[in-house]
Design goal:
Layout lengths: L1 E6 L9 H12 L3 E4 L5 E8 L13 E8 L11 H4 L13 E4 L2 E2 L10 H5 L4 E2 L12 E4 L10 H11 L2 E4 L10 H7 L3 E9 L5 H15 L6 E7 L5 H14 L2 E6 L7 H11 L1 H6 L3 H7 L1
Parallel strand pairs: 1-2, 1-3, 3-4, 5-8, 8-9, 9-10, 10-11, 11-12
Antiparallel strand pairs: 6-7
Amino acid sequence: MRVGLIDVDGYSNFPNLALMKISAYHKQQGDQVEWGIPMLSYDIVYQSKVFDTSPDFDTYINADQIIKGGRAYDKKQVLPQEIETLCPDYSLYNIKNEAYGYLTRGCPRGCPFCDVVNIEGNKSYKVADLNQFWKGETSIKLLDPNTLACKDRLELLDQLIDSKAWVDFTQGLDIRFMADEVIEKIKQIRIKMIHFAWDGERDTTLILKNLEHFKKETNIDSRKLRVYVLTNYETEHSFDLERIYKLKELGYDPYVMVFDKDHAPKQTKKLQRWVNNKFIFRVCERFEDYGKVG
């Protein structure tokens, strides 16, 4: 068969994991796999769209069968198990020495601004061992929504330790689950980047306590410790600013996420520009000063 693939999002931030696994499956069957070109004909075309904000692909596709997938089309849709468990075809995006995948799915938090619970369930559970998507690459991008909430977390952290690869926890480790036994494991991992999240006022005391303890115990460079700071969602500007200053004081690198950016206050958008432009953020230490000249 001739198989065409269409990444509707256009490889915006991450390569499309589902398309890489579909590519691996069809190549395993001996099929010809390529990026879909509208003027050519195909036996089957897979069209994937993850982000609602991406414009849809409305060009005519000459194919006997067209399958649309991805969260922007159907939040409940999942890959067949025989495809989901395959190692992704990284050559599709010309990715070398970098692996992408999930060790766990699901999250117990149930944050109303997040779809994970509705899609993957309210419990963190193991879905793979590292060797299912890592074959010796020097870098690993872990996409798990809440690894530390999984009962198998220590076993999975051991797998990352044994890999000796550089690890980027892209979606955020839950600092509220940061026990000493977890810290000892993380200290043995080659950290490329750890992302945490401080989304609102709930659990502030615990979050601050654990952030401070983690930094003290690991002394990881602040450039490798990024904290997502959700704004324009149930918090006032004063608390947003308080979080930014506190994270900087503790030795973390804040990164502002704006909920419903189209309708966010100008002050919130300005805060995001100040914090996320790291050159400006390091030179201009106070938002009040940036506000005068920004």
